[in-house]
């Protein structure tokens, strides 16, 4: 486990002066230049209004993060670079790469996938963080805690604290809006990007391991791990006074392996799918089942709503019901012609489709 990898100084020396990196500094200027170039590129191809709808919110959100949110995270030594935050960015990059590769196979250009990924990622973060803050609101808004400190902790996503299921409503809403604006099939898009999202989830769970969250209970298996003193696991299952934790299940790594296997299955299922939405439905069926099983190993979430189940297990049951409804709806859709691969858009050659 390595929660903090290193610190980035808030400013750098430039002659006799200190030039800020964050806030109204170098990184914000660089983002304005790069984001402006991206905006001009899209505007020149698709019009100013379209560029504003597609990129306006992501550009403003990142600018706000660089100019306002990151400076709030300065702990005196600089901006801490958390292992969880780094893995989150790596997850987004790898998941987007796979979605771009799959999109090209079915005639969706890289710009479309990148714009979709940006919107879905940002809105998914919002939903995942809100779910976590609501579930553990006492941790953020404790009695006597200054409001400024509470708000700083709420926006400090890099330190950990996201609930995957919380991202689903906001991410789905963002994808629906995107597909509607572009005149694209939501289920074709979903089938294209879902494997990439699972790859991102697998890498993100490694971030959970580095952060020490989402942990499992004590065990004596050869691969059990002990988390260092100062972590929530060590506080709950101490091996001794002010010492590391007793060996526990690396539930985070179990979840990473589960997501990676499900991503591979979704890719393998792609050429076999005969109707739009089948890849999404497959994932929506299997992931809640594996999550419910993993929750039996995890011990960081208490029972919820007066039931013996955790909040994630209850959400999993809802998702299974939605999956059943989706399979029923898919079964009533026309089957693709033989040779027209999954995701093949009208007018595209079947040879362009493939597992990836």
Order of helices and strands: EEEHHEHHHHHHHHHH
Largest sheet: 2 strands, antiparallel
Number of strands: 4
Low-confidence runs: 341-354
The coarse overall form would be: globular
What is the number of domains?
1
The fraction of residues assigned to DSSP E strands is under 5%
Number of helices: 12
User: Can you give the mean pLDDT?
Assistant: 86
Measured as a percent range, the helix fraction is 55-70%
The strand order across the widest sheet is 1-4
Radius of gyration: 22 Å
Give the class from helix and strand content and strand pairing. Answer: mainly alpha
Write a brief structural summary.
The chain is mostly helical and 356 residues long.
Characterise this structure.
Mean pLDDT is 86; it is low at 341-354. The strands form 2 sheets. The chain has a two-stranded antiparallel ribbon with strand order 1-4. It has a two-stranded antiparallel sheet with strand order 2-3. It has 12 helices and 4 strands, in the order βββααβαααααααααα. It is mostly helical and 356 residues long. A hairpin with a 2-residue loop joins strand 2 and strand 3. The protein has helices at residues 26-46, 48-72, 83-105, 110-135, 137-140, 147-155, 164-182, 186-211, 232-236, 251-269, 278-295, 311-331, and strands spanning 4-8, 11-14, 17-20, 79-82. It is 61% helix and 5% strand. It has one domain.
Key phrases:
356 residues, mainly alpha, 12 helices, single chain, disordered C terminus
Q: Which helices and strands appear, and what pairs or packs with what?
A:
Layout: E1 4-8, E2 11-14, E3 17-20, H1 26-46, H2 48-72, E4 79-82, H3 83-105, H4 110-135, H5 137-140, H6 147-155, H7 164-182, H8 186-211, H9 232-236, H10 251-269, H11 278-295, H12 311-331
Antiparallel strand pairs: 1-4, 2-3
Helix pairs in contact: 1-2, 2-4, 3-4, 3-8, 4-7, 7-8, 8-10, 8-11, 10-11, 11-12
């Amino acid at each position: 486990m390595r929660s903090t990898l290193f610190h980035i100084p808030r400013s750098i020396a430039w002659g006799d002066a200190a030039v800020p990196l964050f806030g109204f500094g170098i990184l914000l200027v660089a983002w304005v230049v790069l984001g402006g170039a991206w905006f001009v590129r899209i505007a020149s191809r698709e019009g100013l209004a379209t560029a504003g709808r597609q990129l306006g919110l992501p550009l403003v959100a990142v600018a706000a993060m660089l100019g306002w949110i990151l400076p709030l995270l300065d702990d005196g030594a600089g901006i801490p670079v958390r292992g969880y935050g780094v893995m989150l960015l790596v997850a987004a990059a790898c998941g987007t790469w796979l979605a771009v590769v799959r999109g090209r196979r079915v005639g969706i250009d890289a710009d479309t996938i990148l714009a979709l990924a940006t919107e879905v990622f940002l809105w998914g973060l919002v939903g995942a963080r809100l779910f976590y803050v609501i579930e553990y609101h006492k941790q953020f808004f404790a009695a006597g805690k200054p409001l400024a400190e509470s708000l700083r902790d709420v926006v400090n996503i890099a330190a950990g604290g996201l609930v995957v299921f919380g991202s689903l409503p906001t991410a789905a809403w963002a994808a629906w809006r995107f597909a509607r604006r572009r005149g694209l099939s939501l289920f074709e898009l979903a089938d294209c990007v879902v494997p990439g999202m699972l790859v991102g989830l697998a890498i993100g769970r490694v971030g959970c391991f580095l952060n020490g969250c989402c942990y499992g209970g004590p065990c004596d298996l050869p691969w059990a791990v002990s988390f260092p003193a100062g972590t929530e696991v060590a506080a709950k299952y101490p091996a001794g006074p002010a010492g590391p934790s007793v060996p526990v299940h690396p539930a985070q790594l179990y979840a990473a392996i589960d997501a990676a296997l499900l991503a591979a299955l979704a890719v393998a299922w792609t050429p076999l799918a005969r109707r739009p939405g089948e890849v999404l439905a497959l994932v929506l069926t299997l992931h809640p089942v594996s999550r419910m099983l993993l929750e039996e190993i995890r011990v960081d979430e208490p029972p919820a709503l007066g039931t013996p189940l955790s909040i994630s297990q209850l959400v999993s049951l809802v998702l299974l019901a939605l999956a059943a409804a989706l399979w029923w709806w898919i079964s009533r859709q026309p089957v693709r012609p033989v040779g027209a691969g999954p995701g093949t858009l009208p007018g595209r050659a079947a040879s362009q489709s493939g597992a990836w």
